[in-house]
Amino acid sequence: MASPGSGFWSFGSEDGSGDPENPGTARAWCQVAQKFTGGIGNKLCALLYGDAERPAESGGSQTPRAAARKAACACVQKPCSCSKADVNYAFLHATDLLPACDGERPTLAFLQDVMNILLQYVVKSFDRSTKVIDFHYPNELLQEYNWELADQPQNLEEILMHCQTTLKYAIKTGHPRYFNQLSTGLDMVGLAADWLTSTANTNMFTYEIAPVFVLLEYVTLKKMREIIGWPGGSGDGIFSPGGAISNMYAMMIARFKMFPEVKEKGMAAVPRLIAFTSEHSHFSLKKGAAALGIGTDSVILIKCDERGKMIPSDLERRILEAKQKGFVPFLVSATAGTTVYGAFDPLLAVADICKKYKIWMHVDAAWGGGLLMSRKHKWKLSGVERANSVTWNPHKMMGVPLQCSALLVREEGLMQNCNQMHASYLFQQDKHYDLSYDTGDKALQCGRHVDVFKLWLMWRAKGTTGFEAHVDKCLELAEYLYNIIKNREGYEMVFDGKPQHTNVCFWYIPPSLRTLEDNEERMSRLSKVAPVIKARMMEYGTTMVSYQPLGDKVNFFRMVISNPAATHQDIDFLIEEIERLGQDL
Length: 585
Fold this sequence. Notes:
Helix content: 25-40%
Enzyme class: lyase
CATH class of the domain at 201-422 and 435-452: Alpha Beta
Largest sheet: 7 strands, mixed
Number of strands: 12
CATH architecture of the domain at 201-422 and 435-452: 3-Layer(aba) Sandwich
Oligomer: single chain
CATH superfamily of the domain at 201-422 and 435-452: Type I PLP-dependent aspartate aminotransferase-like (Major domain)
Subcellular location: Cytoplasm, Cytosol; Cytoplasmic vesicle; Golgi apparatus membrane; Presynaptic cell membrane
Order of helices and strands: HHHHHHEHHEHHEHEHEHEEEHHEEHHEEH
EC number: 4.1.1.15
Radius of gyration: 26 Å
Family: Belongs to the group II decarboxylase family.
GO molecular function: glutamate decarboxylase activity; pyridoxal phosphate binding
Number of helices: 18
């Protein structure tokens, strides 16, 4: 594939011009925003630069219906001729918007009001005085609103109300005190990129309908392969709908590499295949095996040490056992950043074993791949450059809006040969441009969402050093939490030692359990503590953190940090909130 070159598309350093934190630039930006967006520009600048009232929580003096009905503009001079003049949503429907005749004015007014709703939600997401969640039980939400679909259209006033209602009950995943999942935070450049992607509304299968996006995918995947350590960024890759699909791609390609006839003849034409992964690995490996006809029984779970890392000697033992039974080991999936413990398998040792027995080595770095951006922490993935394939989810540790998952493959052309079907209505061979940019035939999907632009635009805005600072900050916050609770009364660590990732796993021990002997009764009572505290967190709406059992360990909290908005004060708040909500248990 011919390189699109450097310059605009590349990830070089920027001069910082256009920085919205610069007062002069900010004023210029506001002027442009006001010129091209009317009232929304005034409101956006006020929200960003402190001239607006704080966004009110639900239950304010003006109802959403009244606000929608007025649809008033923010023009200084009256009468005006802006898009909001004389727009009454109560009498308008979707058929009055573009491409309707004379639909431009109501379309601009409607979209500006949608944008107002979105921007207020964005600002409130970072406001620590607002709730992370306005929790209602499913039956309550079903009874409180009519969610059913009808034959007749609703007016645009009602449509705006649905937008407000939906966000009212949405989880503020960008809130600095939301720690529930591996994917947290809300990046403003990534959000803007997502809006642009939806506006473009195209598909990633050919260059002719997604020229810029296809080039950006080429450039970005090449950069990611360079960071992994493959010479010159050589190889292949694709953005897929999440890490589970990326892992399944790896399993599929590994099988094809060993037995290419499986593509036409199916599993009946190949011997019993065996994959190996750690007992702490992601469940998607078994799901992939089930989907590909390999079978979950053909996924062998390798023992881990007390920190959750795969034990290489057990891996080799199980490979030899499989071979003695006449089975064919075809894939080892090592994990760089396990979901619960945040453990990194010993990739160098795993690579040696894979080389010895000629087995495809995959690294599931969906959670841990972001550490490759950090000079301080990338050593934890030493050996990843020896992998045949790598899953890396920028929507996790790097804070790119969902979804953004990449599969990187070291051997170029293998993915294409594995998946292509030569659909002549899409991939004509006599097109007038370089056909190597028609990437759709190497994907399982036909329709494929544009996921690359969010990552590319954020990378341009932050630079590699910006992602590095993001990663380093989050790991520092995790160490801060660990140092506070490791010797604090009422806390027990699930495993000893400083965490390798931002996962901090611990039990909170209420006062009533602190003097009990470590027996079955204590474990039974302790298992109920984390679920009750989590339920209370959600009902109060103050914070969210995950819990789970693992193996013989009863329910414990798994704290993860990937949101750069979080601070030491938010970590302190979490500890105090756990103690407040759990002291009476």
